[in-house]
Specification:
Number of helices: 13
Distance between the termini: 27 Å
Helix content: 55-70%
Largest sheet: 6 strands, mixed
Number of strands: 10
Length: 460
């Protein structure tokens, strides 16, 4: 929502009888206990951390102080929905690795973390006292006016002080003051709503990281990269259809024609030549079918990633256990990239690992699809700096990002040495994913990939 849109409801005639004044009041009222708790937490962490820093015990407390803006900002984004229907997205990025250390490194390097810490101090020292003063003044004025008859009755002397400004000495006057308080309540709803709208605008400005020109260019680069990926996938599918409906059908017709010619019983050497030609046509037909499967398998299009991986496992020369939990369909580019990555990994297992068994397992974790291919082979695989995978006794663990098919990503082709895994890494990086290869000497070898997992409605 544009900031000016937060003031639009105040101009509507039905504002007073809508739920917005109550939501604005609730938004400002909840700031008071939250702000007080934030102030107490910041003071305690700062004092205890500074006092204990000399014995190193206070350093974790100071670190918690630095990070204290993160949970507060998360709560503020949710609380903002009371007055602003447009959600404020979380600007934090996913850590580059797993574990607490990677999370801390990522958070401390983000500008958003420090902006949220500044917001926490501003909220604790300035914002909530002002909101408490505004809401308290409104409640005091309206409540004091409306409570005049009750105060007069409780006093027993037939008079009551009205906001300590004048004395009402009769019940008709007291009830007139009560009526004035009731009429004043909807009038004060407008400044209260304006205050809540201004507070929401300030929160949105402080908790959203402005996009710089470089950030905008990077986002446009990401969008154009995904458009190229989609165009590439569409072209692959077109080639697949042309081969399936064109060249493959012609080879089938040629093989049948040669077979019918052989049935005519021609004399040698023509009969031998026809048999040889039919054999060559059958071989070409098998090769073109493998090529079509390598370009884009039909099972991937029809039934999705789990079924396609099951198909790879069924055609693998080694026993492969598959446990892949994918909720619904994904983007075609994501399904294709993960499919060919798993295909390349299992092809390498069959060719180079000396394994007797392999497994494929994965699922969606925190919005990312994570898939692991593990084998019980001899280990020692590596993804070298020049992109070549090989057996090496000194190899350990390597990581990369991803891209196109690299070498042979289908099951039927042989990859040139050094192109397969690097091609997988390049293909995944285009999708914003990553590849990790852990293969200590003696095994096991674990091939792990992660890729963002857009919802099914984004499937193109």
């Amino acid at each position: 929502m544009h900031p000016s849109g937060l003031w639009q409801p105040l101009r509507r005639r039905d504002y007073v009888i809508s739920a917005r004044p109550w939501r604005a009041a609730l938004y400002l009222l909840t700031s008071v206990p939250l702000g007080a708790a934030t102030l107490l937490t910041l003071v305690l962490l700062a004092v205890a951390g500074s006092a204990l820093a000399v014995v190193l015990v206070g350093l974790p407390l100071l670190l918690v102080l630095v990070l204290s803006g993160i949970p507060l900002a998360s709560l503020e984004r949710r609380r903002l929905r009371l007055v602003d229907s447009t959600p404020l997205t979380d600007p934090h990025r996913e850590p580059s690795g797993t574990g607490l250390t990677a999370w801390l490194r990522t958070r401390l390097q983000e500008r958003s973390t420090w902006r949220e810490l500044g917001y926490a101090f501003l909220f604790a020292t300035v914002l909530w006292p002002l909101e408490a003063l505004a809401v308290g003044a409104m409640l005091l004025v309206c409540g004091g006016l409306m409570a005049t008859p009750a105060v007069m009755a409780a006093g027993g002397d037939g008079e009551a002080k009205v906001l300590k400004l004048w004395i009402a000495d009769s019940y008709p006057e007291a009830f007139a003051v009560l009526a004035a308080g009731v009429l004043l309540l909807p009038v004060l709803a407008y400044p209260l709503g304006a205050l809540a709208a201004g507070r929401a605008v300030l929160t949105r400005q402080l908790l959203s990281v402005p996009e710089s020109g470089a950030d905008s260019r990077l986002q446009e680069l990401d969008r154009s990269r995904m458009r190229l990926v989609d165009a590439f996938e569409a072209e692959r599918r077109r080639i697949e259809r042309d081969l399936h409906d064109g060249a493959q059908q012609r080879l089938v017709a040629l093989s049948m024609t040669l077979g019918l010619a052989r049935l005519e019983g021609p004399a040698e050497p023509l009969g031998g030549l026809l048999a040889k030609a039919q054999g060559e046509a059958d071989v070409a037909l098998v090769e073109i079918r493998e090529l079509i499967r390598g370009i884009h398998p039909q099972v991937l299009t029809d039934r999705g990633l789990p079924a396609a991986v099951e198909d790879i496992a069924d055609r693998s020369p080694l026993p492969v256990d598959v446990r892949l939990d994918v909720p619904g369909r994904l983007l075609e580019a994501v399904e294709s990239g993960v499919y060919f990555a798993v295909s390349e990994a299992l092809a390498n297992v069959a060719k180079h690992s000396g394994a007797t068994r392999a497994s494929v397992r994965g699922g969606v974790v925190s919005g990312r699809l994570a898939v692991e291919v593990e084998d019980d082979g001899q280990g020692g695989a590596r993804l070298a700096a020049d992109g070549r995978e090989a057996g090496a006794a000194d190899s350990g663990e390597a990581g990369a990002a991803d891209s196109g098919t690299g070498g042979s990503t289908g099951t039927g082709g042989g990859a040139r040495a050094g192109t397969g895994l690097q091609g997988v890494a390049d293909r995944l990086s285009v999708l914003g994913g990553s590849l990790l290869l852990s293969s200590p000497p003696g095994g096991p070898t674990v091939f792990r990939l992660e890729v963002p997992c857009p919802p099914a409605r984004s499937r193109t």
